Amino acid sequence: MKQIAKVKLWDVLTQAVADMTKHGFDSPDRLQGWISKLRDAATQDAGTQAQAVQRLRLSLGVLYTRWVSNGAILKYHPGIERTTLKVIEPRLRAVLDRRILASADLIKLNREQAIEKTLSRFSGWATSIPSGGSKVVDRLDVKSHVAKAMRTANYETRRLEIDQGHKMLSNISAVIAEQTGARGREFLAALVAGYEAAVRASAARVPWYKEQLYSTGIWGVF
Protein backbone atom coordinates (compact mmCIF):
# COMPACT_ATOMS: atom_id res chain seq x y z
CA MET A 1 0.00 0.00 0.00
CA LYS A 2 1.33 3.43 -0.95
CA GLN A 3 2.06 5.58 2.08
CA ILE A 4 0.40 9.00 2.17
CA ALA A 5 2.97 11.80 2.44
CA LYS A 6 2.74 13.95 5.54
CA VAL A 7 1.65 17.51 4.84
CA LYS A 8 3.60 20.15 6.78
CA LEU A 9 1.61 22.93 8.41
CA TRP A 10 4.13 25.60 7.37
CA ASP A 11 3.86 24.58 3.71
CA VAL A 12 0.06 24.72 3.73
CA LEU A 13 0.13 27.98 5.64
CA THR A 14 2.50 29.47 3.05
CA GLN A 15 0.08 28.56 0.28
CA ALA A 16 -2.92 29.81 2.24
CA VAL A 17 -1.36 33.20 3.05
CA ALA A 18 -0.25 33.65 -0.56
CA ASP A 19 -3.74 32.86 -1.88
CA MET A 20 -5.57 35.08 0.57
CA THR A 21 -3.07 37.90 -0.02
CA LYS A 22 -3.75 37.68 -3.75
CA HIS A 23 -7.54 37.33 -3.67
CA GLY A 24 -8.52 38.67 -0.26
CA PHE A 25 -11.63 37.61 1.61
CA ASP A 26 -13.86 37.31 -1.46
CA SER A 27 -15.93 34.33 -0.34
CA PRO A 28 -16.54 32.17 2.74
CA ASP A 29 -15.84 29.08 0.63
CA ARG A 30 -12.27 30.15 -0.06
CA LEU A 31 -11.63 30.73 3.64
CA GLN A 32 -13.28 27.48 4.74
CA GLY A 33 -11.28 25.55 2.16
CA TRP A 34 -8.03 26.76 3.66
CA ILE A 35 -9.30 26.28 7.22
CA SER A 36 -9.97 22.61 6.40
CA LYS A 37 -6.52 22.10 4.88
CA LEU A 38 -4.83 23.89 7.77
CA ARG A 39 -6.70 21.78 10.30
CA ASP A 40 -5.53 18.57 8.63
CA ALA A 41 -1.93 19.79 8.47
CA ALA A 42 -1.97 21.04 12.08
CA THR A 43 -3.38 17.74 13.29
CA GLN A 44 -0.55 15.88 11.57
CA ASP A 45 2.09 18.25 12.93
CA ALA A 46 0.74 17.89 16.45
CA GLY A 47 1.00 14.11 16.26
CA THR A 48 -1.56 11.75 17.72
CA GLN A 49 -2.73 11.93 21.30
CA ALA A 50 -1.64 8.31 21.75
CA GLN A 51 1.94 9.24 20.85
CA ALA A 52 1.99 12.12 23.33
CA VAL A 53 0.52 9.97 26.12
CA GLN A 54 3.06 7.23 25.41
CA ARG A 55 5.92 9.72 25.74
CA LEU A 56 4.50 10.92 29.04
CA ARG A 57 3.99 7.33 30.22
CA LEU A 58 7.66 6.60 29.53
CA SER A 59 8.77 9.81 31.25
CA LEU A 60 6.78 9.12 34.41
CA GLY A 61 7.83 5.48 34.28
CA VAL A 62 11.50 6.44 34.38
CA LEU A 63 10.86 8.65 37.42
CA TYR A 64 8.88 5.92 39.16
CA THR A 65 11.58 3.31 38.56
CA ARG A 66 14.32 5.53 39.93
CA TRP A 67 12.53 6.93 42.94
CA VAL A 68 10.27 4.02 43.93
CA SER A 69 11.45 0.76 42.39
CA ASN A 70 15.12 1.59 43.05
CA GLY A 71 14.33 3.16 46.42
CA ALA A 72 15.81 6.66 45.90
CA ILE A 73 12.79 8.27 47.57
CA LEU A 74 13.71 6.63 50.89
CA LYS A 75 16.37 9.31 51.26
CA TYR A 76 13.49 11.65 52.14
CA HIS A 77 11.85 9.17 54.52
CA PRO A 78 14.40 8.32 57.23
CA GLY A 79 13.60 5.15 59.10
CA ILE A 80 11.53 3.56 56.35
CA GLU A 81 12.99 0.26 55.13
CA ARG A 82 13.04 -0.90 51.52
CA THR A 83 10.98 -3.93 52.54
CA THR A 84 8.23 -1.60 53.77
CA LEU A 85 8.33 0.23 50.46
CA LYS A 86 7.81 -3.07 48.64
CA VAL A 87 4.78 -3.86 50.76
CA ILE A 88 3.01 -0.58 49.93
CA GLU A 89 4.18 -0.40 46.32
CA PRO A 90 0.76 -1.41 44.87
CA ARG A 91 -0.65 1.81 46.37
CA LEU A 92 2.25 3.79 44.94
CA ARG A 93 1.75 2.22 41.53
CA ALA A 94 -1.86 3.44 41.65
CA VAL A 95 -0.56 7.00 42.01
CA LEU A 96 1.44 6.55 38.79
CA ASP A 97 -1.62 5.22 36.98
CA ARG A 98 -3.77 8.16 38.12
CA ARG A 99 -1.16 10.67 36.92
CA ILE A 100 -1.12 9.07 33.48
CA LEU A 101 -4.92 9.15 33.22
CA ALA A 102 -5.10 12.79 34.33
CA SER A 103 -2.35 13.72 31.88
CA ALA A 104 -4.12 12.13 28.93
CA ASP A 105 -7.06 14.53 29.33
CA LEU A 106 -4.75 17.54 29.63
CA ILE A 107 -2.74 16.51 26.56
CA LYS A 108 -5.92 16.21 24.53
CA LEU A 109 -7.16 19.61 25.71
CA ASN A 110 -3.85 21.38 25.05
CA ARG A 111 -3.56 19.84 21.59
CA GLU A 112 -7.08 20.85 20.61
CA GLN A 113 -6.58 24.38 21.95
CA ALA A 114 -3.35 24.83 19.96
CA ILE A 115 -5.03 23.76 16.74
CA GLU A 116 -8.10 25.94 17.30
CA LYS A 117 -5.98 28.96 18.20
CA THR A 118 -4.00 28.49 14.97
CA LEU A 119 -7.16 28.37 12.88
CA SER A 120 -8.67 31.32 14.73
CA ARG A 121 -5.61 33.46 14.08
CA PHE A 122 -5.60 32.58 10.40
CA SER A 123 -9.30 33.29 10.07
CA GLY A 124 -8.98 36.63 11.86
CA TRP A 125 -6.18 37.72 9.55
CA ALA A 126 -7.76 36.39 6.34
CA THR A 127 -11.09 38.11 6.91
CA SER A 128 -9.27 41.44 7.35
CA ILE A 129 -7.92 41.32 3.79
CA PRO A 130 -10.27 43.17 1.40
CA SER A 131 -11.68 41.43 -1.66
CA GLY A 132 -9.16 41.77 -4.47
CA GLY A 133 -6.17 41.20 -2.20
CA SER A 134 -3.48 43.36 -0.70
CA LYS A 135 0.05 44.36 -1.69
CA VAL A 136 1.19 45.38 1.79
CA VAL A 137 1.05 42.02 3.61
CA ASP A 138 4.18 40.90 5.46
CA ARG A 139 3.70 37.22 4.72
CA LEU A 140 6.44 35.93 6.99
CA ASP A 141 5.12 37.93 9.93
CA VAL A 142 1.60 36.64 9.31
CA LYS A 143 2.75 33.03 9.15
CA SER A 144 4.83 33.36 12.30
CA HIS A 145 1.88 34.84 14.18
CA VAL A 146 -0.59 32.20 12.98
CA ALA A 147 1.73 29.26 13.69
CA LYS A 148 2.88 30.43 17.11
CA ALA A 149 0.49 28.22 19.08
CA MET A 150 1.64 25.09 17.25
CA ARG A 151 5.31 25.98 17.73
CA THR A 152 4.82 26.14 21.48
CA ALA A 153 2.63 23.02 21.69
CA ASN A 154 5.57 20.65 22.17
CA TYR A 155 6.99 22.90 24.88
CA GLU A 156 3.65 22.86 26.68
CA THR A 157 3.55 19.06 26.51
CA ARG A 158 7.06 18.85 27.96
CA ARG A 159 6.09 21.27 30.73
CA LEU A 160 3.08 19.08 31.45
CA GLU A 161 5.34 16.02 31.77
CA ILE A 162 7.51 17.82 34.32
CA ASP A 163 4.53 19.08 36.30
CA GLN A 164 2.89 15.66 36.43
CA GLY A 165 6.19 14.23 37.64
CA HIS A 166 6.10 16.77 40.49
CA LYS A 167 2.62 15.76 41.48
CA MET A 168 3.32 12.05 41.22
CA LEU A 169 6.36 12.16 43.52
CA SER A 170 4.65 14.48 45.99
CA ASN A 171 1.60 12.21 46.14
CA ILE A 172 3.81 9.13 46.46
CA SER A 173 5.58 10.72 49.42
CA ALA A 174 2.21 11.47 50.99
CA VAL A 175 1.10 7.85 50.53
CA ILE A 176 4.33 6.58 52.08
CA ALA A 177 3.83 8.86 55.07
CA GLU A 178 0.20 7.84 55.44
CA GLN A 179 0.87 4.13 55.12
CA THR A 180 3.73 4.21 57.64
CA GLY A 181 1.80 6.12 60.31
CA ALA A 182 3.28 9.59 59.89
CA ARG A 183 1.19 12.41 61.35
CA GLY A 184 1.19 16.17 61.55
CA ARG A 185 4.61 17.65 60.95
CA GLU A 186 5.97 14.36 59.55
CA PHE A 187 3.16 14.20 56.98
CA LEU A 188 3.77 17.79 55.82
CA ALA A 189 7.49 17.08 55.66
CA ALA A 190 6.74 14.13 53.38
CA LEU A 191 4.78 16.37 50.99
CA VAL A 192 7.68 18.82 50.86
CA ALA A 193 10.10 15.96 50.34
CA GLY A 194 8.08 14.77 47.38
CA TYR A 195 8.35 18.14 45.67
CA GLU A 196 12.03 18.36 46.54
CA ALA A 197 12.64 15.01 44.88
CA ALA A 198 10.61 16.06 41.84
CA VAL A 199 12.46 19.37 41.45
CA ARG A 200 15.84 17.66 41.68
CA ALA A 201 14.78 15.03 39.16
CA SER A 202 13.50 17.66 36.72
CA ALA A 203 16.58 19.87 37.07
CA ALA A 204 18.80 16.88 36.36
CA ARG A 205 16.89 15.93 33.19
CA VAL A 206 16.11 19.37 31.76
CA PRO A 207 18.96 21.94 31.51
CA TRP A 208 16.61 24.96 31.27
CA TYR A 209 14.31 23.81 34.07
CA LYS A 210 15.55 26.12 36.84
CA GLU A 211 15.54 29.24 34.68
CA GLN A 212 12.20 28.77 32.91
CA LEU A 213 9.88 26.87 35.25
CA TYR A 214 8.54 27.29 38.75
CA SER A 215 9.55 24.73 41.34
CA THR A 216 5.92 23.97 42.19
CA GLY A 217 2.96 22.65 40.20
CA ILE A 218 1.99 24.71 37.15
CA TRP A 219 -1.13 22.90 35.97
CA GLY A 220 -3.15 22.98 39.19
CA VAL A 221 -2.40 21.65 42.64
CA PHE A 222 -3.63 18.05 42.58
Would you kindly provide a written description of the structure presented here, covering whatever features stand out?
This protein has 222 residues and is mainly α. It contains 8 helices and no strands. It has helices spanning 9-23, 28-46, 49-69, 82-126, 139-151, 153-179, 185-205, 209-212. It is rod-shaped, with a radius of gyration of 23 Å.
Helices and strands in order:
Elements: H1 9-23, H2 28-46, H3 49-69, H4 82-126, H5 139-151, H6 153-179, H7 185-205, H8 209-212
Brief synopsis:
With 222 residues, this protein is an all-alpha fold. It is 74% helix and 0% strand.
Task: Note the main attributes of this structure.
single chain; rod-shaped; 222 residues; mainly alpha; disordered N terminus; disordered C terminus; 8 helices
